[in-house]
């Protein structure tokens, strides 16, 4: 048993967990051999012990404090069920957006109506992101370890960037030369307007 503040936890125990040796440094060299060809060397931190129950995510215990539920100036598009947010800070990738239901749904409890609208929306977001000059593809991820509110990420993969293929693309945002704020806002605007052309509203919380 351990405590993190007043949060009581015990070691996670399963057949899978019992095979692990905590405190040892995993070999990260396989990451240098992946198709993305992005890493020359990788030194992993020692494997940390795993405890359960895990601490609640943002908005898990009290949806009243959920950031995804509150209006945001970074909402670049919204319709009846879904919203897209972007432009929090400049980075190296042409576009990163967060896709979330407008209401506080988790993947586990979102109504079929909301989930059914996600497929066509992903198609529209992909097409919108690819209209940014110099963008070849739009990648999506769904992690949901930080906030309980269902959300997916959309990442623009620059044209010709073979070192950005796959999951490593998200890390390149912090390593490529940072875009200017002007360029970021221009690209965010391209995506917002393209999405709104197919329905919904661009920048719903922005004063006109
Ligand atoms: Zn929420």
From TrEMBL:
InterPro entries: HIT-like_sf. SUPFAM superfamilies: HIT-like. This is Diadenosine tetraphosphate (Ap4A) HIT family hydrolase. It comes from Microbacterium keratanolyticum.
């Amino acid at each position: 048993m351990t405590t993190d503040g007043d949060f009581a936890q015990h070691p996670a125990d399963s057949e899978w967990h019992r095979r692990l040796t905590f405190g040892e440094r995993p070999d990260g060299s396989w990451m240098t051999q992946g198709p993305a060809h992005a890493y020359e060397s990788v030194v992993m931190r020692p494997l940390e012990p795993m405890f359960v129950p895990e601490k609640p995510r943002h908005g898990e215990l009290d949806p009243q404090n959920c950031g995804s539920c509150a209006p945001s100036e970074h909402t670049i598009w919204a319709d009846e069920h879904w919203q897209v947010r972007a432009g929090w800070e400049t980075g190296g990738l042409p576009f990163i957006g967060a896709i979330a239901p407008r209401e506080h749904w988790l993947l586990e409890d979102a109504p079929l109506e909301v989930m059914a609208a996600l497929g066509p929306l992903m198609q529209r977001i992909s097409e919108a992101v690819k209209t940014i000059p110099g963008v070849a593809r739009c990648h999506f991820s769904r992690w949901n370890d930080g906030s309980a509110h269902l959300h997916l990420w959309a990442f623009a993969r620059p044209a010709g960037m073979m070192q950005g293929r796959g999951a490593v693309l998200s890390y390149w945002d912090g390593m490529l030369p940072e875009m200017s704020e002007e360029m970021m806002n221009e690209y965010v605007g391209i995506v917002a307007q393209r999405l709104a052309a197919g329905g919904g509203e661009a920048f719903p919380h922005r004063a006109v």
